[in-house]
Amino acid sequence: MKVLFKFKFFNKSIRTKMLFLFLITYILSIAIVGYLGYYNARNALQDEIFNELSGIAVLKERDIEDFFANRKKDVKVAQQFKSIQTYLPILIKHKKNKTNPEYINAKNQIDYQLNAFQPTDDVYREIELIDPTGEIVYVSSLVHQGEVGLMMTDRIEFREGKNRIYMGDIFYDEIYGDFEIYMAAPIKDSGGNFIGEIFFETPMVKINTLMHDMTGLSETFETYLVGRDMLMRSQSRYFEDNTILKTWVNTEGTDDCFNKPTREESPVQHATIYKNYRGTRVIGSYKLLKEVDWCLLAEIDETKAFAQINTLKMMTLTILGIASILSAIIALYLASAIIDPIEELVNGTEKIGKGDLDYKIMIKRDDEIGRLSDSFNQMTEDLKRSKEKIEEYSRNLEQKVDDRTRELKRSNKLKDLFIDIIRHDILNPAGVARNLSQMILENEEHPKKKEILQVIYRSNESIIEMIGNASDLQTLESGEKLEFEDIDIGIVLKKSVREVVRLADAKNIEIKLATHGEFKAMANPLIHDVFLNLLTNAIKYSPEKSVVDVRIMEEGSNWKISVADNGEGIDNKDKEAIFDRFNRIHKGAVKGSGLGLAIVKKIIELHNGRVWVEDNSDGGSIFFVTLPKD
């Protein structure tokens, strides 16, 4: 085996190595199976504990039901005593005169009859007879003789005991210093007429004894009783101080016991895990005692109940830990065998990445990594040849870039020279020609000559406009930064409107401008050219006797200016193109250089704003401009 690992294993394919790793997976699978075994064992033990708790709850329930059933039998026997049926009316008749011989004789007869129920600390403390008005007229024990004459009308036992045998809730007897229960029943004469009630006072000693009987059970096992008011009806075995009617038990167990319906076919509810009244996690089962409306709970501490499970858990964890350590050792050994050559490849990649194309990876193996090493070395040779070709191409490219740069510099110089020529050598003669044609036009009366002069004048105007726009655009695109100042764009708009009034009047066009208040913005005076251009275009492309509507609106941190006309409008496909230089949509007889809106766009972009056009719902177009306030 040692020879196999040393000389053959690591020369095999990666597939073979992965098969070996599957062996490790198999070991881990055994660990997983072990865990599942632990999990199933835990569930089985838990079910066993649940069943045991449910069984104990049933046994305790039967003990309590038997105790109360025997007390009911005694009550039924006492109901039929002839002496009580005969002498109770006499006691009631002479209850105000207890020295009356008839009263004394009647009491003695009843005492003799009730001697059958000897008072004990775990069955009966005393027996009382109540007249129909609720007054106690007889008490069997000397201790409670002082209660004769007291009224019982406020007790539910008296109200319910008129018609049936009724078992009341627990109460504290101050004379005996203990907790007791009243069992009440009606007394009827031979004719079936109600003549009073009999009360049996039963101590809780027997009930507590039944609850605390832990014979054959764990020391953390406890059974106790809780009323619907969530107070204990039996003494806790964990506290020396009294817990009856004092200790609050509002747990998941009591909540389910009183609120979930009990199925007839399974009267004991399934056990659950919850925190009990001591704040300890327990496994508990419960049963509702319908006779007294109490909840019987049987509980055991979860830690104690699952002690065996915890031991099994520690053993399972120990096995898993050992298996994990062994798997880690084997995995590290295998990883080293696989990763070391890969790291050699990475180191070679880093060296080649730094430019050492003469580096060779020295891995001589017959598996995929060996073939990868050979391919890597071949790739390095190819990269070396490619690098030499690229370096040669780079040298040629640098020469071409230098030549092209010189050509561009020469082209830019020629462009600047051309702009200077048209700005000075062409603009001046064009201005002179325009002024002369205007002077002649003002004095010419011949219609045909006047029409020719007007054509000459407009042509010169177009030349001057085109030269000015080209010059402005060249200045804006030169890269020089604009200087901004605090400007009221409302005032700038008003000034621009005044400058185009004559042009608008010539076509009977009304310009509407609503500016109220201040419209401060940080802008360059070139913003005036933007508004003037938009207004001039709106007038040019609007029909006679129409309206150009100019508005300023606040839009967050920007001012939004709109110029609306009633012209022919702009097709959707042209709405972006009109802002490109030398791109103009010719309409009718209106001519232009196509640079005006390109200048507008450039100026607005230098202000970090936007310009666009939309359709006017009343016909025509609306040009929008946004300018930052700051």
> In DSSP terms, counting alpha (H) and pi (I) runs of 4 or more, how many helices?
15
Strand order of the largest sheet: 2-1-5-4-3
Could you estimate the helical fraction of the residues in percent? Answer: 40-55%
**Radius of gyration, taken over Cα atoms and rounded to an integer in Å:** 56 Å
| Coarse shape | elongated
Tell how many strands the DSSP assignment holds: 16
The fraction of residues in strands falls at 15-25%
Which class do the helix and strand fractions yield?
A: alpha+beta
Largest sheet: 5 strands, antiparallel
What number is the mean pLDDT?
80
Low-confidence stretches: 1-7, 263-268, 588-593
Oligomer: single chain
Q: Roughly how many Å apart are the termini? A: 83 Å
Structure description:
This protein has 630 residues and is α+β, with helices and mostly antiparallel strands. 51% of the residues lie in helices and 17% in strands. Strand 13 (547-555) and strand 14 form a beta hairpin. Helix 2 (14-79) runs antiparallel to helix 9 (307-353), helix 3 (82-93) runs antiparallel to helix 4 and helix 10 runs antiparallel to helix 11.
Provide the fold topology.
Layout: H1 2-8, H2 14-79, H3 82-93, H4 101-114, E1 126-130, E2 136-139, H5 156-160, E3 166-173, E4 178-188, E5 194-203, H6 205-212, E6 221-227, H7 252-259, E7 272-275, E8 281-289, E9 294-301, H8 302-305, H9 307-353, H10 368-443, H11 447-476, E10 485-488, H12 489-499, H13 501-505, E11 510-514, E12 520-523, H14 527-541, E13 547-555, E14 558-564, H15 596-606, E15 610-615, E16 621-628
Parallel strand pairs: 11-13
Antiparallel strand pairs: 1-2, 1-5, 3-4, 4-5, 6-9, 7-8, 8-9, 10-12, 13-14, 14-16, 15-16
Helix pairs in contact: 2-6, 2-9, 3-4, 9-10, 10-11, 11-15, 12-14, 14-15
